[in-house]
Specification:
2 copies of one chain form a homodimer. Chain A is mainly alpha-helical and 579 residues long. Chain A contains 25 helices and 8 strands. Helix content of chain A is 61%, strand content 5%. The C terminus of chain A is likely disordered. The two termini of chain A are 53 Å apart. In chain A, α5 runs antiparallel to α13. Chains A and B meet through α13, α18, α20, α21 and α22 of A and α13, α18, α20, α21 and α22 of B.
């Protein structure tokens, strides 16, 4: 691997305009989001800013997407909060140290998976499970932010708990906070829905109007901050504000935290890595395809791994590729990860000199930003489509979403992974097995239950449409034994192996036992259409030796053999054979 | 389901002889084994006897095997000890109560899996992983029994730990205990190796000689007990003996144990259920096939589940089908589970009136029995064969065995399950995908890298040899995009779906995105040989509507279409399409 990325070596001047515009626009989105997601994760605001500098540069060096915008995102922030809340007090130095450790762990895992080329692990999660997880998380996040809108204290690890605590705390609502929060919420919802069409009517191009509408959260931040700073509602009305944000670039340091916490962070780190990776790759993939570019999943693992290591070392928390910011980055004309580097530099300037601007920013405004961002993640359409197309998938989606909402984010994702794995095992252990017969007058053989074919008396011919391995070989055995039991006069059992690309040790043992047990009962196992590489390995085994002369190139040849052999009774009796 | 088992309703008098002989012989094996495995599990001897009465009857009522001998077995006893040792002092009332609870939990899980027809879950474990687990457990068990041969106290949850503790305790070896234990070990090893041939030379039939050699452990028990009772080595030489075993049939009772332990027993119960089920079914299966009988995995779940519930309610510990006793049961002529019922009755007589006989039985003799029993479970041949046939399987075997030996029994089995699942995901996410071309002059299409075929300029034809679902659809996408990138003049991408039995929601989404993104680049997606049920569901989706007129019955028709369409430039350009 070359240490200078391709996009740097082949950089063209004409790309600079798009990269700069995109970098600036993403930065304007990133400032309120990084503060908000730090709040969501239970971390001080500066941690969100730290996570928006070096990680972007690290990803730009190693990632394969030209347009993915890396940084703090809603779901990973929720997962961070859920992992750390049992271990330390939110906002405390211990809690911050654990967050950086979580980021390092998650980064280390991603790098390891990348080095081992385990990108395929992301296929563990089916779309319905991911969709259910994201929608459930969005509900959980939105419910958790209501306390900031009301200006009350309330917790809860699941939605029921949260609602119950909110109901109890509601009488203590701070009216000014609620006014600011509800106003901001309304403004943001209106901006999302009507700002772009309105700007178009004013003469803006649709693309520019759409870009401008993404800046609404920043506008809300500026106006509300100015309002509180002027009216000093923090003092006069008890409005909760961000307060002093330490100025200065992040320091590179190893987190000082007891290694005893390492064990309890392993599972959360794994889940954050997995979910973050899957989300990132799917966003990056769909954007890349629009420009005929390619994403390399294993390079994405390295890019995201490096980003999280960078985040952990510079006082940040887990990051990944964000959906909304990536889409804006793409639409604003980003050509290369230079856009991300420009964002990082601008964020550096903000934190080095401008954090004072956020002092009077009300928490309620950040909460409103979060709520508006996550509500768009709730995907009812996916549920409706899955329900229409495949009920089992719809149930998996609902179960995952329900698990997140009713129990919590980790239980939900684990339930989703278990459901996906269960489906995988179920499918793998149910290979398609067809009994075949001859299409009359030809050398073609087809499924007896679908075509008019002729069979050979005393011969059972079975075609298995998958490689044989531990998860399905017992099923084949079961099927063959069932067929043999139903046809006691069977003399030959033929396995047509045209779709068998591999026979593993377990399947070999099953076939060996099957052959011996058939021989014991006076029946012979035949194989046909065994592929070259499979045959090479098979012929060196005990089964291969026993089957000598009974492995045929074509199903036709095996049928002919069975027809002729049925005139020679007793030939395959093998009373000495034992299982 | 009928409550009177089939074998009872159709019982034939001629079966009674075989069942009685087998029942008696298995009982003679079962007495020393049940005492020994209780010792291995850290339980008082009577618990082993309790686990050898009602569970046998429960299995006889519900199981599907005619010859499986259920009761305490070595590996489940080891797993019980490993699960309970962190929670209570071995041998204490709390420990016993936890063992019965573990048995109830494991039974409940097996019943649940049976009711949900989840027998296929056993396919999660590949043969190499099971073999490695059993061999590793055997080493761990044998090492753990050495302390009884030496007459010292020593613990250890893994082999290194055990060896270190034994080395430290060795100077305190009790010479008389060592004499009895080593003598017994030698006798049992000799009996296994030479007794049967020796009896044959004396004129016995090979079958009877083999049966008789299985009674050697009972002989060792009788001789050593008589010796200690006469010489009173328990007093004069400090030989550790079984001591008073409470007489009387087990009482039916719910274990009195704090429900707080339930959580920490869930995973062990699941693992014991899974391993016990897999072992049982494979023994039962291979025995049944010798007599052209069938095993029904879901009925085995019910039978083993009921056996464990019965064990838990009657003061026993987890049970399953034992390998050695089942083989003897079969060879001794058992025709039906009546053999097990006879064993249960005889065991009842023993515990009701004859426990006094075991008072002077030395622990060293039980340890020797265990060691001889488990040494035969170490399967080096399986490793050698796997190594020769499939290195990856051999590595899985070694890793599982190594995990058990070096870390412990739970870590080992979890590592094994993880390895098996990893293999499953790896295989599932690597479907066989072939680029196909026309066999010249025919309507047959074959893999271009294996056959001499002709392709159509501008057409990429891909055949995927598996159903499309979440674990492999991204891989297909990746492959297609790679092919398209290498052939920029592509106009048509054809998917030959002859092996696709299902397209799940995830794969549907991937195909939908692929079609749109190809259209965006001026390329058309074509499908051919889509199976009826797949087509029915597909045609109701957005993708189905977009593909109208581009789904062909045969690959030939699709090739013809692509050839004609390539004269009409730009037809599929679809600039409005967005991802």
């Amino acid at each position: 691997m070359n240490f200078v990325p391709d996009w740097v070596r082949h950089y063209q001047k004409s790309w600079l305009g798009g990269d700069t515009v995109a970098g600036v626009i993403v930065t304007v989105m990133l400032i309120p989001q990084s503060l908000a997601y730090a709040l969501l994760a239970g971390l001080p605001p500066e941690v969100g800013l730290y996570a928006s500098i070096l990680p972007l540069i690290a990803y730009a060096m190693l990632g394969s997407s030209m347009t993915l915008a890396v940084g703090p995102v809603a779901v990973a922030s929720l997962m961070t909060a859920s992992a750390l809340q049992p271990l330390a007090t939110p906002g405390s130095p211990d809690y911050v140290a654990l967050a950086t450790l979580l980021s390092l762990l998650s980064g280390g895992m991603l790098l390891l998976f990348g080095a081992l080329r385990l990108g395929f692990l992301s296929h563990l999660l089916s779309h319905p499970v991911i969709s259910g997880f994201i929608s459930g998380s969005a509900v959980l996040i939105a419910a958790g932010q209501v306390k900031h809108l009301l200006g009350v204290n309330a917790g809860g690890t699941n939605v029921f708990d949260t609602v119950a605590q909110l109901a109890q705390a509601a009488p203590r609502t701070n009216p000014v906070t609620l006014g600011i929060g509800a106003g901001c919420l309304l403004f943001l919802l209106l901006a999302r829905k009507s700002m772009a069409p309105w700007l178009v009517r004013l003469g803006a191009s649709p693309r520019r109007a759409d870009m401008a509408s993404k800046l609404a959260p920043m506008l809300a931040v500026l106006v509300s901050t100015a309002g509180v700073a002027t009216m000093r509602w923090d003092v006069t009305a008890g409005v909760s504000i961000v307060g002093a944000v330490p100025e200065g670039l992040p320091q590179i340091a190893w987190p000082t935290v007891s290694m005893a916490s390492l064990g309890s962070l392993l599972l959360p780190a794994l889940l954050i890595s997995l979910v973050g990776f899957v989300e990132s790759v799917s966003v990056a993939q769909s954007l890349a395809l629009k420009r005929q570019q390619r994403i390399q999943p294993n390079r994405e693992l390295l890019g995201l791994g490096a980003a999280n290591i960078a985040s952990g070392l510079s006082g940040g928390f887990p990051v990944t590729g964000g959906f909304a910011r990536s889409v804006v980055n793409f639409a604003a004309g980003a050509n290369t990860p230079l856009a991300g580097v420009i964002s990082a530099v601008l964020m550096g300037v903000v934190i080095a000199a401008l954090t004072g601007l956020f002092h009077y920013l009300p928490h309620a405004v950040l909460a409103a930003t979060i709520i508006v961002a996550v509500v768009s993640l709730i995907d009812v359409e996916a549920l409706r489509e899955a329900w229409r197309y495949d009920k089992a998938d719809a149930v998996a989606l609902l179960a995952t979403a329900g698990g997140v909402v009713a129990v919590g984010v980790e239980a939900g994702i684990l339930m989703g992974v278990a459901l996906s794995l269960g489906t995988l095992v179920w499918r793998s252990s149910h290979p398609h097995i067809a009994v075949v017969g001859r299409v009359p007058g030809t050398e073609h053989f087809r499924n007896v239950s679908r075509h008019t074919v002729t069979t050979e008396p005393g011969l059972i011919a079975v075609r298995v449409d998958e490689s044989l391995y531990f998860a399905n070989s017992e099923v084949l055995l079961d099927r063959v034994e069932g067929l043999v039991a139903a046809e006691p006069h069977t003399r030959h059992v033929l396995l047509v192996c045209s779709a068998v690309n591999q026979i593993d040790t377990t399947a070999l043992a099953v076939l060996t036992n099957l052959e011996r047990s058939l021989a014991h009962r006076g029946m012979a196992l035949l194989l046909a259409e065994v592929k070259g590489p499979v045959l090479d390995r098979l012929s060196e085994t005990a089964l291969g030796h026993r089957l000598e002369g009974r492995i045929f190139l074509s199903t036709h040849a095996a049928f002919e053999y069975a027809r002729q052999a049925s005139d020679m009774p007793g030939r395959y009796d093998d009373p000495a054979a034992t299982i």
